[in-house]
Write a structure and sequence with these properties.
mainly beta, 2 domains, four-stranded antiparallel beta sheet, disordered N terminus
Length: 343
């Protein structure tokens, strides 16, 4: 919690907010933490997480809250290279987990933070690999033509859901956490992408492309009961989504006008609107606070964007939405980590 004082202070969000900042030119990862706050939640002095060459981007939040999982990108005479790093938020110590390779994308932690899975072109066009938190025990999980990508680990750590083009168009598959027994979940003429287990493991949300539409769908882990989260009257362009920590809600990015994206928080069960964030312009990259009471997002175009946060409850005593970055250049892609847990 933030600072001290009365009920308003007690209601402030906690954790650590990572984001990309381009105030120094190349994208770098910065953080804002409650202990740095002065006038309000996360309004204190931001700190750079890592000062190193190349462009840096935050990836899946560490379940233990202790480290930043980052992707580093370098382009020079040697070509395009990407690497996966784990950086301590306490002392800045960093360890390269994988790379450099031409592509390292979509890393996803196991629920206990002891291992992660990611996609890479290290041995093929694109396949999934698993690696321990300390960089040991690297194991290839898939070996399929046309690639496997965008993994998500089940809350009990036993299953991985992912997209793959092994049967031509992108479909969703589920396999054991060791790569065993892959099972196809969807059979659809368009692409099915970006699957994510709900925090309770009872649902998988994903993006379905169909006849020029891009919508968020959900289904059971065995592939049954697939249906759109929102009614078909909603925007046909739904670019991204994020599960709330308790799995009861989804934050969905919708197109509400030309070059106008808003974030709608809806009940996962029936699509009913709970809250809406955004104004005229681009509002995207939703990230939930660890307690599920707040949302962070990016607002603005790529050259002038900032990170905002807002409570789900408009009557929250901490107040309404507010901008929490204001540096020169673009600030974007927030990731919200909880308090550090024991390693």
């Amino acid at each position: 919690m933030l600072g001290c004082g009365g009920p308003e202070r007690a209601s402030q969000p906690g954790g650590t907010l990572l984001f990309v900042s381009e105030q120094g030119g190349a994208p770098a990862v910065w953080r804002l933490s409650p202990e740095h706050a002065t006038t309000g939640p996360l309004m204190g002095r931001p700190e750079v997480v890592i000062d190193a060459p190349g462009a840096w981007f935050p990836a899946d939040p560490d379940p233990r809250g202790a480290d930043a999982l980052l992707i580093a990108v370098e382009d020079d005479v040697r070509g395009h290279r990407e690497s996966l790093w784990r950086v301590s938020l306490s002392d800045g110590a960093r360890e390269r987990l994988a790379g450099p390779h031409g592509r390292i994308r979509s890393p996803a932690w196991s629920p206990d933070g002891s291992w992660l899975v990611f996609e890479t072109d290290a041995a093929s066009y694109r396949d999934l690999f698993r690696i321990s938190r300390d960089g040991s025990q690297l194991k290839r999980l898939t070996d399929a033509p046309h690639g496997s990508f965008e993994p998500s680990v089940s809350p009990d750590g036993t299953q991985i859901v992912f997209a793959s083009s092994r049967d031509m168009d992108a479909e969703l598959y589920r396999m054991g956490a060791d790569g065993s027994d892959p099972v196809r979940l969807t059979r659809h003429p368009g692409d099915d992408l970006s699957p994510r287990f709900s925090p309770d493991g009872t649902q998988i949300a994903f993006i379905r492309l169909e006849e020029g539409q891009r919508r968020v769908w959900r289904m059971a882990p065995d592939g049954s009961g697939a249906k759109p989260v929102l009614s078909t009257d909603a925007s046909p362009l739904q670019t991204a989504f994020a599960w709330s920590p308790d799995g009861s809600r989804l934050a969905i990015v919708l197109e509400v006008g030309e070059r106008d994206l808003d974030i709608h928080v809806v009940n996962a069960s029936d699509g009913a609107l709970v809250a809406r964030f955004g104004s005229s312009g681009i509002d995207e990259h939703p990230a939930w606070s660890p307690d599920g009471r707040w949302l962070a997002w990016t607002s603005g175009d790529r050259s002038t964007s900032d990170v905002w946060i807002g409570p789900l409850d408009p009557k929250d005593p901490a107040g309404g939405p507010r901008r929490v970055t204001a540096g020169a250049g673009a600030d974007w892609l927030p990731r919200w980590l909880g308090s550090p847990a024991a390693r």
